[in-house]
């Protein structure tokens, strides 16, 4: 999703230098089953990406107008581990993400201003995960805490994960529970604001705050059929409650009236998916994926994806991919100026409309034994590009760079 700027590479160089200061004491010849109980760095991942989109169905202006948006995002995750006296592994992953985006449509919330506060914004999202695992059985348990914040919302998250592997190592059950407690700042389009005065001569831009809470679960059952074939079944029910409408998005009605987007305060989602991986020889892996989605707003969707990683050498591979999605939109959607004035709920957000989309591209992965570009600690470099095209006219391009330091 995002553009690779020079300062990201400089950040990577700084991390690489820090990694170079780490000294791990080598094991003695008779200590093959010994694990050091000191906290050590396992790996560092740096991801930098650029995303750019265009389109003419902005929900901010009622389903018409520019959807031009750019997003530049960087994340770094630091993975550490430590063994306890019983020989079990405690893994810690700290991730920090920072996004910067510019959105032409957000500037239309108040077109009379030179530039609204949300036309360009930054989002920061740190998280910390702890996982305790028994390497003999493969079973593990873990907890995650996270935060995300930007101009008009704050979010606090917590999660729990559990993994159980059968004695023959062929079956694995993964369970995840997550909760996100969000607080939205309610911002209305300029023409719908109450006109309350803040005391400094300026109209109030906010109608206060409103909560939105999200709870999700994930159940995944993976099975090794044979040395070449692996399958997985995934069910991910979720529930949301609170302010689910984006109040600065306009809706226009057949009688010429205008209101802020209004949607139900509860939403149930049920995605059901299957994944199949087939190892077709030493140089080709076939990854296939299908998902069916439904919710209580009336949305139904089918998604199918195919990725074909091809190993060109012992350290170089390419991965072309294609994904197709077909969606039946919510009953609350209508285009610009076509909403019924008597409707209780309404949106002109084309993300919720009937549509189909294609996403295709390729990745290249480099992992030479002596390190990328001869840098021993830089164990992997991956570059991916994708193009997205939607039947509503929206198009986007995404490029991602991933660097792994070990």
Structural descriptors:
disordered N terminus, mainly beta, Porin, 406 residues, 1 helix, single chain, 53% strand
In brief, what are we looking at here?
By secondary structure, the protein is mainly beta. It is built from 1 helix and 20 strands.
Give an overview in words.
The protein is mostly beta strands. The chain has a single domain (6-21, 38-405), classed as monomeric porin ompg (Porin, Beta Barrel). Helices cover 3% and strands 53% of the residues. It is built from one helix and 20 strands. It has one helix at residues 6-19; strands at residues 40-54, 69-83, 89-103, 120-133, 140-150, 153-165, 171-185, 209-224, 229-235, 238-242, 250-252, 258-260, 266-279, 285-295, 300-307, 310-311, 316-328, 355-366, 378-390, 395-405. The strands form two sheets. The chain has an 18-stranded antiparallel beta sheet that branches. The chain has a two-stranded antiparallel sheet with strand order 11-12. A hairpin with a 5-residue loop joins strand 2 and strand 3 (89-103). It is globular, with a radius of gyration of 24 Å. The protein starts with 5 loop residues before the first helix and ends with a strand. 17% of the residues are buried.
